[in-house]
Design a protein that fits this description.
Number of helices of chain B: 0
Largest sheet of chain B: 7 strands, mixed
Shape of chain B: globular
Radius of gyration of chain A: 14 Å
Largest interface: A-B, 24 and 25 residues
Order of helices and strands of chain B: EEEEEEEEEEE
Distance between the termini of chain A: 41 Å
Oligomer: heterodimer
Number of helices of chain A: 0
Number of strands of chain A: 12
Strand content of chain B: over 45%
């Protein structure tokens, strides 16, 4: 079945460091891909998305490119801030299952000042 | 515009007690979902609804029931709570399916069953 695998955390970086969180997926058909972010004590919110191969999603300095050839959707940011500390979830929507979203297990990110 | 709201925010139950979690959305979304979030497990779908009066099972439906009597509300019921149901519960909603739609999440309900 469809699935999402993302790197396990926690990931700890210093402020202004470069961030990569790896995400790969398994899917039949043509899913849409998402990154959601969960700040402490809050629900998830959409960070960015891409709906077809080679699309790049971007928001708040974060970027991810839908790579069908490598089935990947890695999250990157050039210079992280303390306020980026959160849990990040990679996800895909399954067009064969009522477009339900399948989430990865999440990667906790700590940014040190 | 409140988005997705959940009631209550916290609750402690004894084993065998029942309760209902309420989710409300004011965005006129057709689809609504209930998830549970447990450490190391990510989010798992409990039940979902594709419209008023409809419900369907998700990944982990056992021990839960749901109802969608009104389009804006989605209720999650625990008839006989068990310690394994200790978790954080999130409700979400989305507009009618189109590729790349977004789910909007509520703030969560933290439930402890002793």
């Amino acid at each position: 079945g469809n699935s999402v695998t993302q790197m396990e955390g926690p990931v700890t970086l210093s402020e202004e460091a470069f961030l990569t969180i790896n995400c790969t997926y398994t899917a039949t058909g043509y899913p849409s891909l998402f990154w959601y972010v969960q700040y402490p004590g809050e629900g998830l919110q959409l960070l960015l998305k891409a709906t077809k191969a080679d699309d790049k999603g971007s928001n708040k300095g974060f970027e991810a490119t839908y790579r069908k050839e490598t089935t990947s959707f890695h999250l990157e940011k050039g210079s992280v801030q303390v306020s980026d500390s959160a849990v990040y979830f990679c996800a895909l929507s399954d067009p064969n299952r009522d477009d339900k979203i399948i989430f990865g297990k999440g990667t906790r990110l700590h940014i040190l000042p | 515009n409140a988005g997705v709201t959940q009631t209550p925010k916290f609750r402690v139950l004894k084993t065998g007690q029942s309760m209902t979690l309420l989710c409300a959305q004011d965005m006129n979304h057709e689809y609504m979902y209930w998830y549970r979030q447990d450490p190391g497990m990510g989010l798992r779908l409990i039940h979902y609804s594709v419209g008023e009066g409809t419900t369907a099972k998700g990944e982990v439906p056992d021990g839960y029931n749901v109802s969608r009597l009104k389009k804006q509300n989605f209720l999650l019921g625990l008839e006989s709570a068990a310690p394994s149901q200790t978790s954080v519960y999130f409700c979400a909603s989305s507009s009618h399916q189109a590729q790349g739609y977004e789910q909007y999440f509520g703030p969560g309900t933290r439930l402890t069953v002793t």
